[in-house]
């Protein structure tokens, strides 16, 4: 049981660090205003995409593994624990992770910064 919660903690702390990094870059970009350059904007997009992918994957994993640590009774409909997975899944579909992963791959392999799109 402790190992499960330890893994949950590591996942959450990793996501928290990525979100804090993206937030700091967003604050810096906001302060740049109209002087924000293409490179800074692209680096911000990469940081946000990284945080989003990590938060989505970690969140969905934790919501599913929640039942491993709470037991069979936790699946009872009256508890509605499944709503956490469903709510997170719904939120993650509004800005598809697949687009973010593709942008991150393009950066990792080709050093190509993301271009502004409907989803960024």
Give an account of the 3D structure.
This protein is mainly alpha-helical and 120 residues long. The protein has a single domain (2-110), classed as Up-down Bundle (Butyryl-CoA Dehydrogenase, subunit A, domain 3). It has four helices and no strands. The longest helix has 33 residues, at 38-70. The N and C termini lie far apart (39 Å). The mean pLDDT is 92. Residues 11-96 form the Acyl-CoA dehydrogenase C-terminal domain. Keywords: Oxidoreductase.
Write the CATH homologous superfamily: Butyryl-CoA Dehydrogenase, subunit A, domain 3
- Tally the structural domains: 1
- Got a strand count? 0
Rg for CA atoms: 17 Å
CATH class: Mainly Alpha
The largest β sheet comes out as: none
Q: Shape from CA axes?
A: elongated
Helix content: over 70%
Strand content: under 5%
Number of helices: 4
What fold name stands as the CATH topology?
Butyryl-CoA Dehydrogenase, subunit A, domain 3
**pLDDT below 50 for ≥5 consecutive residues: which ranges?**
none
Report how far apart the termini are. Answer: 39 Å
* Name of the CATH architecture: Up-down Bundle
Average of the residue pLDDT scores: 92
Listing every helix as H and every strand as E from the N terminus to the C terminus, the arrangement reads HHHH
Structural class: mainly alpha
